[in-house]
Hints:
By secondary structure, this protein is mostly helical. It has one domain. The protein contains 7 helices and no strands. The longest helix is centred in the N-terminal third of the chain and has 25 residues. It is elongated and about 75 Å long. The mean pLDDT is 94.
Amino acid sequence: MxxxxxxxxxxxxxxxxIATKISLLEPVALLVARFYVGWAFFSSGLxxxxxxxxxxxxxxxxxxxxxxxxxxxxxxGTVAEILLPLLxxxxxxxxxxxxxxxxxxxxxxxxxxxxAAAAYAQHVLWATLLLQIVIFSGGRFAFDSLLKRHINKx
Length: 154
């Protein structure tokens, strides 16, 4: 082998060792993503519950949820922001809950006439993290994974 081939082979092997070690962080990254996005939506849902009159006012006057009466949109949005994050954070029905929150996120963005650049960037980040969970699942530290391992034993 030439020196150049040896260098390429050595570099490739080193890269593979590093990549393998970094891949061990995937379940941790998915867990952090689930909790980060889940908590953002859950706390929003709690805020809606804590001041229901204000929530109804906002859905009637501020948010322009398409195709739905404001009362129905308020109930649906609040239920989604309470239930889906709990599922997401526990890792139960991870893909379903992430996809549901992805759509809640989209509705939130299109329902506002004006959205600040920083708030828009936050919604883009949430959407990106949610899509990762939809694609990769909740990871090893999700109940989905535990159930899958338990079912595969039989």
